Amino acid sequence: MDRRTFLSTIGCSVAASPWITPIALANAPGNNRMVVIILRGAMDGIDAFRPLGDPDYAQLRPDLNDGQALDLNGYWALHPALEPLRPLWTAGELGVVPAVSTPYRDKRSHFDGQDMLEAGGVALDGTINDGWLNRLVQSISGAPPELAYAVGREQMQILAGPAQTSRWSPEARLHISPQAERLLELVLHDDPLFREASEQAIAIASQVDMDRDADVAAVEDMADDPMMGDIVRTGQHIQIAQFAAARLRGDTRIASFSINGWDTHLNQQGGIKPALERLSDTILTLRAGLGDHWSRTAVLCLTEFGRTARQNGTKGTDHGTAGAMLYAGGAMRGGQFAGQWPGLSEANLYDRRDIMPTADVRAMAAWVMRGLFGLDRNQLESMVFPGLDIGDDPKLIL
Asked: What domain count does the chain have?
């Protein structure tokens, strides 16, 4: 096997892995932290947080309304799979903005919806090819440069762009012995292109080993946290949360990653429960891993669109329009349903089938970034989310 075939085989094996989910991180000055979690597949916001006080809810969802939801305020109730997060709600560290969306309408494609969510713009023709978190990094005065690398099947659009960021995947393993390093150095000495690629691969492998040590320390730090008692500390989502927390305890200020599994066209009761459990475990792992930094952290959980108000014939829900933004963190004003709830009467639904959007999810994120990183309104409306009117302050930040 020649060197090109060898390196190509490594790259294809990593790229083909269905288990690799990249995590993207960036440095920024100051002490505040932000974590953006993309819920890929369109989370059903009114199943995760059920408006039981709405007179139309039970009729629209006779099978999904199982009577097990946990009351939060007499109108809204929590899906039982999110019960571990209830103490955060009580402590004012968990909240929801219902009926939010991007400008994406009607076509209901996961790919287009996710592209618009992560790009933060309205163009679907390729004219917007960077992400709003990358533009945020460019907008923060004094943000230091960061070496960019990617290991994984996909790049996250939300952090794509000129500002340098880092990427990591928990399932990527590249162990290189000193002898192998020396062999690569000799074989590739006269090939500048592949010599540089191998040097980068070795640097990544070394960084992953250091990151794994940090993850072990993070797990040990979490051992005494009472809210972590029922969490099974295995699975990729836990690894990602541990890694993100370890980095955020250091110089990193911004992290973004995905949790998949939200497309619940049939048997939604069985499908959404494990996804909500993963989300709950992820948030609690971040909280425990961040320690004292949790008080300066905002976690935003965003999805590309919502789902239909009415259940379908297979006891699931179809692609909709408005969804919900879950947020958490000690820097957030939780214990509330912020924004405006349109209701579920047929006259108030979008196209008589979907939750009617009452707010742009980008504006919610913009106000959080303004509070965390001190960006002015003009920067947010012209640089981070070009052309967006962010409206009035929803007061999500303490």
From this structure: 1
